[in-house]
Structure formats: structure tokens, C-alpha cells
Amino acid sequence: MCAKIVKSKKVIVGITGNIASGKTTALNYLSSLGFKTINSDEIVNKIWSDKEFSKIISNEYNVNLEDRKSKKRFFNKIYENPILRKEIESRIHPKVFSEIESNLQNEMGIIFIEMPLLYEVNFHHKCNYVILILTSRDKQNSRLEKRGLSSKESKIRINSQKKFLFMNKAKYYKLLKKESLNLGTFEIYNITKKIDLFKSLDKIIEEIQKHEKNNII
Fold first, then answer.
1. What does the DSSP assignment read for 33-88?
2. Residue 163: its pLDDT value, please?
């Protein structure tokens, strides 16, 4: 599988899913195949690293973002407090969208954009296709633990994302809003090995390329 076909037009594929579902792993794999990829989490991290932005937030919310522990506590508050989270997102999202639009300029072919809040911010309307990566609660906890998050911190982050409803170990996440699932949405159940995730992505790429080849190119 490689980044071929569909070079005469721009095809945007959104990648979304809950925290620790495997979105970044998927994006890195797609990048290794030669596809143009955009990681919104990296853009967000870049924004937080901006000294001017950090200073404004520090002053307004009386927090020292240069102190690692203080910054971590503030981030936990953002996840716990929906009002605070909305306030912060209203500052960050416009910057993220601007950066994405800038990255999309003069790009052609299939472009993959990773965005956890793709449906919440209505970015799926800008996508030709969406890949929804799902996983189990056990897998989420295990992956977040490897990132250094405590059990409490993991729970806060998982519970802050109400987009998916966890059923049980035998089942997986399902979208609460049925309208989010459309003909352009692919689902991947990322609960086994990475190679299985990669095989699923290969099949999706093949389907997208086949569909686009039949419709234009």
C-alpha cells in the first residue's frame, strides 16, 4: 500500500475517536506510506508552547504554566470543568483551524487529518471521508497508564469525552448521535495488535482510492 492515485484533486480524510484509541498510531502509519498528514494534537501543543499565548492564559486564570506541576493541575481542571474547557477551546480552536487551512493550501491527493473533536466542532463537514477509531475501556486505561497518567487522571480524561458510550468488554464504543455515522464513515475496532490496525487502514485506503478513481481522476 502506498500514497498513489487521486493526485488530481484534494481528498480530506478525518481521523477521530476517543483518547488513547490509536489515532496517532494510525496517522504515523499513514505518514510512513507517504500520505500528507496533519496532527491537530501537535498543533494544540504548539499553541500551548507559544510564550505569548501561555502568558495570556497564565494571567487570566492565575496559573503558572511554566511550572510543570501547576500546568498539569490546570489541565486536569480543564478536563473536569466543562465551562472552563469551553472557554479554553474557544481560544485554541480558531488557531488550530487556521493552521490546518494553512497546511492544506496547495496540497493535492489524499490528506489525513487527526482531530479528536472532529464532530463536536463540525469539521466532518469539510471531510470527504471519516475514519472512526474505536477501542475498549481496558485498552484506553492501559495506554494512558503508559503515558504516565494516574488512574484518576485517566478517568477524568475519558469521562470528559461523552461522544462515545462504552458498553462492556465484549462490545465497543458507539456514537451517541446516529447522524454522525454516514456513508463516508469507516470504523476500526483497535483492540488487538498494531498490525491489525495497519491492515484495516490499508483496506480503507484501497476503498477510498477505488471510489475516487471511479468518480473522477
1. TT-EEEEHHHHHHHHHH-HHHHHHHHHHHT--TTSHHHHHHHHHHHHH-HHHHHHH
2. 52
The predicted structure's pLDDT at residue 198: 97
Q: pLDDT tens, 111-151?
A: 999 999 888 888 988 999 999 998 888 888 888 888 888 88
Reduced to 3 states (helix: H, G, I; strand: E, B; else coil), residue 8 is: coil
3-state secondary structure of 6: coil
Q: How many alpha carbons lie under 13 Å from residue 63 in its C-beta half-sphere?
A: 18
For residue 16, the tally of other CB atoms under 10 A from its CB is 26
Distance of CA 196 to CAs 80, 107, 189, 203, Å?
34, 29, 9, 11
What distance in Å separates the CA atoms of residue 91 and residue 95, rounded to the nearest whole number?
A: 7
CA atoms in the 13 A half-sphere facing the CB of 124: 21
CATH topology of domain 10-177+194-211: Rossmann fold (3.40.50)
Query: ∠ at Cα 131 (18, 122), nearest 5°?
Result: 70
CA 170 to chain centre: 24
Give φ, ψ of 197 to 5 degrees.
-65, -45
Domain ranges in the chain are 10-177+194-211
Q: What would the pLDDT profile of 191-207 be if each residue is shown by its tens digit?
A: 899 999 999 999 999 99
The residue type at 69: K
> What is d(CA 80, CA 200) in angstroms, rounded to the nearest whole number?
34
